[in-house]
Design goal:
This protein has one domain. By secondary structure, the protein is an all-alpha fold.
Length: about 130
């Protein structure tokens, strides 16, 4: 079980880094300035920051480098909320003949692995009776 958990953690951290880099590229390629007064425009940079912080927290989890177990749980919950927000935003878009099925599958896999990591981190953090 520990080996499976370590593999899931490493794959999930790499997936979060790649997703953060992709969203950062989309943000920078958009070519428009951010309006600090509009929360909808600030939501994407905040989510990118959450993805990067969670990925680094997963990579350095054994060393407690700036991130403890509680901080990692909070970051993973914030990542989960960001995924839910992405699902809501994507569901509002009307697609033509071709839907981005691969994108939906990757998001769903990251969503499920994030749930597994939240559960495993909470299970580790609770001392046995």
């Amino acid at each position: 079980m520990i080996r499976l958990r370590n593999i899931v953690i490493n794959v999930h951290a790499i997936g979060l880094l790649l997703l953060g880099l992709y969203l950062l590229f989309v943000l920078l390629a958009g070519g428009h300035r951010l309006n600090i007064e509009d929360f909808r425009e600030l939501k994407l940079p905040i989510e990118i920051l959450i993805f990067f912080l969670a990925a680094f927290a997963l990579f350095f989890r054994g060393r407690n480098f700036l991130f403890g177990n509680e901080t990692l749980i909070v970051l993973l919950i914030l990542v989960q909320l960001s995924f839910i927000d992405f699902f809501i935003e994507i569901s509002d878009v009307e697609y033509g003949d071709e839907k981005p099925v691969v994108f939906f599958i990757l998001f769903f896999l990251l969503f499920v692995s994030n749930l597994f990591l939240i559960y495993s981190q909470i299970k580790i953090g609770i001392p046995p009776p």
